[in-house]
Amino acid sequence: MGKLLITLLIAVVGVVTGQEETDVAMTLFATDLNGCDELSACDTVVKIMCASVSSDWRQCGITGEMGDDNFPLFKERFNFRYVPSEMQRWRFDLIDKDVLFDDPIGSVTVSMADFLRATEIQATMMFELNGRSRFYLHRRSLL
Ligand SMILES: [Ca+2]
Fold first, then answer.
1. What is the 31 CA–ligand 1 centroid distance (Å)?
2. Ligand 1 mean position to 20 CA, how many Å?
3. What's the CA gap between 14 and 19, in Å, rounded?
């Protein structure tokens, strides 16, 4: 009985402080993108870069292009394994695709631990992006 209680307490503390390994699923969206092209809305892809204590930045995901859309809701779902001791970080590079040159829209960097903490209560974490634009990470259930 006492042992069960202690185990439960440790589990609760682990969830609150993000000290347990866990699987993380997310989707991405952005609102109020602007200033990409003269005659149309942004044509956005998001490149996901990952880094940790044991790995330098490397690409670990990319969305499809959402053409001519300043409120893109990206279709892909991304899955990651959170390992607290790895101190994993993500960088999301938003890029406007063009025929000749791709232009950066903005970048957001966040630690996986901060994301897990922020999404304990509400599913979405919001970032300001170059003034009016916003970028959102939406935590999905694993089911
Ligand atoms: Ca474009």
1. 16
2. 41
3. 5
Block means of pLDDT (10 residues each) for the chain, 143 residues, are 62 59 97 92 97 97 97 98 96 95 95 95 94 94 82
Query: Which of 5, 22, 8, 6 has its CA nearest to residue 117?
Result: 22
pLDDT in tens, 75-108: 999 999 999 999 999 999 999 999 888 999 999 9
pTM for the whole structure: 0.85
Q: Is 101 exposed, middle or buried (0-12, 13-18, 19+ CB in 10 A)?
A: exposed
Q: Which residues contact 79 (CB under 8 A, 6 or more apart)?
A: 23, 24, 25
CA of 98 from ligand 1 middle (Å) equals 4
Max intra-chain CA distance, the chain: 68
Q: How much distance in Å is there from the Cα of 66 to the middle of ligand 1?
A: 10
Instruction: State the distance from the centre of ligand 1 to the C-alpha of 40, rounded, in angstroms.
Output: 8
Domains (ranges, CATH) in the chain? 22-140 (2.60.40.150)
